[in-house]
Amino acid sequence: MANNQILGENFKLINRYAMQYGLLLGLFWVVRYLFHVVAGIGVSDRFDFIYYLLNIATLLVVYIFYYKFKTSDADNPKNIWQCILFTTLMCFYASFFEGAMIFAHYQFIDPAYFTKITEPFLKSVDVVPRMWGSEADYEETKQFARILYSNKLFYIAIEFIKNIFLGLFLSLILNFVVKVNNNK
Q: Average model confidence (pLDDT) for the chain?
């Protein structure tokens, strides 16, 4: 019983830190995405360049938050699993902000942009050759793919999943990179 209570308290602490830093990371991702939006409406390609530079800066931001979490309590060092959970949850919470920004972009700011990025996928669905199954199954599969590729929420969900895997991947790498010395 005491073990479950300790795990619950640890999870609450990890979750609190993940929400706090996830808020900051999410706001960073919103600012980063705004550069992409400005570039997409044709102002200048330099904004897209800044957007990609900020993608790289995301690695630095995640590293800083990871290090702050890992060193947050010198008396109680964080283990590998706690750090992995923290980074993954942090990216999960940050994804809500980026997802809201992407939805606003697709829905209100530049609806034509979504059509522009999905058009190649929709065209590729029509030219995919039938490999197996009946003609009715083939047409049904093509129709399902058209619906899936034309759904804005599908693309936002893909961003969520991508960000969660980014957090997991970065935490695995950072576990080997970040070493904390407890020399007192």
A: 87
